[in-house]
């Protein structure tokens, strides 16, 4: 964890295995902003306080204080479909953990330094890091756990086609 945290603190250039989104537009941008501002409001971070944003982003690299982290990787030969499979795995991990009373934080941020993760954990050169999941018992009193993100209505997420 220390190595990753130091790297992120020094603003080392990102080297993810899978390219991060090029940009967020439309509803994706709207939803991202809503979630972000909910978090900043809960933490008392003022709009535009870039230093506080950066400090909060660094929390990723100490797993938000969670005692455990799962690193989700796929085989390089599987390409993007390996990453899709991992997405299914991540969903089920989150639901199974929640059902067992364990809280989770899925994190793409830790893939920023995939090479370092591979090196530090002695992962094979054929592994490609998709994301990580920090987990443990929730700190219910923490302000970051004081709100819930909203959910898009079904009509917004599904296009119904009738003949
Ligand atoms: C695949 C995936 C990657 C994510 N990566 C990060 C991340 O790197 N850092 C972060 O703070 N939140 C990340 N999030 C968002 C949060 O973990 C969390 O999902 C968000 O606060 C919304 O909560 P909800 O899933 O209950 O709507 C990610 C979510 C997903 C599904």
UniProtKB/TrEMBL annotation:
Enzyme Commission number, as recorded: 1.-.-.-
Q: Where is the Nitroreductase domain?
A: 51-137
Report keywords, A-Z.
Answer: Flavoprotein, FMN, Oxidoreductase
Q: Which domain of life is it from?
A: Bacteria
* Named cofactor requirement(s): FMN
Presence of the UniProt keyword Transport in the record: no
Q: Which InterPro entries match?
A: Nitroreductase (IPR029479), Nitroreductase-like (IPR000415)
Q: Does the keyword Coiled coil apply?
A: no
What Gene3D superfamilies does this protein map onto? NADH Oxidase
Q: Name one GO molecular function term.
A: oxidoreductase activity
Pfam families found in the cross-reference section: Nitroreductase (PF00881)
**Membership in a protein family:** Belongs to the nitroreductase family.
Please state what the protein is called: Nitroreductase NfnB
């Amino acid at each position: 964890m220390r190595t990753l945290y130091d790297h992120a603190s020094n603003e080392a250039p990102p080297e993810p295995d899978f390219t991060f989104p090029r940009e967020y537009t439309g509803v994706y941008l709207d939803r991202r902003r809503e979630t972000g501002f909910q978090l900043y409001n809960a933490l008392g971070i003022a709009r535009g306080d870039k230093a506080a944003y950066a400090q909060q982003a660094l929390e990723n690299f100490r797993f938000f204080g969670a005692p455990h982290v799962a690193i989700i990787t796929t085989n390089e030969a599987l390409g993007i479909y390996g990453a899709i499979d991992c997405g299914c795995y991540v969903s089920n991990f989150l639901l199974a953990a929640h059902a067992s009373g364990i809280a989770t934080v899925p994190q793409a941020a830790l893939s920023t330094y995939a090479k370092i993760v591979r090196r530090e954990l002695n992962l094979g050169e054929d592994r490609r890091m998709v994301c990580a999941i920090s987990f443990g018992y929730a700190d219910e009193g923490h302000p970051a756990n004081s709100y819930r993100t909203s959910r898009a209505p079904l009509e917004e997420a599904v296009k119904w086609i009738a003949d």
